[in-house]
Amino acid sequence: MTPTRTSTAAKSSQNAPTKDGKPDKRFKVLDITMKRNQYRQDALIEILHKAQEAFGFLEEDVLSYIAHKLQLPLSQVYGVATFYHLFSLKPSGAHTCVVCLGTACYVKGGGDILKAVEGDVGIAAGETTEDGQVSIVTARCIGACGIAPAVVYDGKVAGQQTPEQTCDRIHTWQQEDS
User: What is the DSSP letter of 150?
Assistant: First the structure.
């Protein structure tokens, strides 16, 4: 992406009309957060969290807008957004299953859980089912080593999981949404 295009995208995103023809208010929420943080570059992670909360995921226009407002290179903003597993560059499904692959979880079967879920649901980690119902995500560590292997179902941590338990939970989601 060229610097000119970044600036144009970043400037125009704020005023981009929504389906009803009005400016997108989510950018206003982002502006308030950046202003409260005095446009400090060291507040990037907090600002990205607010952006993801407002937009659901971090699309390119949003990252460009943040980069422009904080006077950071887009590559740096993108690098932070892709480094942390809590940020998503794609829309996530109605339900999210995060399989921890940290050392303790992996040793106790986290890799087996992931393999079973991918095979059962038919998507790879980082993807969402075609119907938009289930996203499978991995994390390097969720800080639940004492209850390994751990899986996070829609934001709730469950410990000592098995491949069968995880697949059953996902099947429950799919049946609820059918």
Answer: -
Neighbours of 70 (CB within 10 A): 19
Q: Considering the entire predicted model, what is its pTM?
A: 0.64
Strand duo 151-153 + 95-100: pairing:
antiparallel
Q: Nearest Cα to 32, choosing from 18, 4, 53?
A: 53
Examine residue 149 and say whether the peptide bond preceding it is cis (omega within 30 degrees of 0). yes
Give the span between the Cα atoms of 13 and 7, in whole angstroms: 10
Contact in structure between 30 and 47 (CB atoms under 8 Å): yes
The answer to whether 146 and 152 have CB atoms below 8 angstroms apart is: no
User: Phi, psi (5° rounding) for residue 102?
Assistant: -65, 165
* pLDDT digits (tens), the chain, 178 positions: 434 344 444 444 455 545 566 788 999 999 999 999 999 999 999 999 999 999 989 999 999 999 999 999 999 999 999 998 778 898 889 999 999 999 999 999 999 999 999 999 999 998 999 999 999 999 999 999 999 999 999 999 999 999 999 999 999 998 886 6
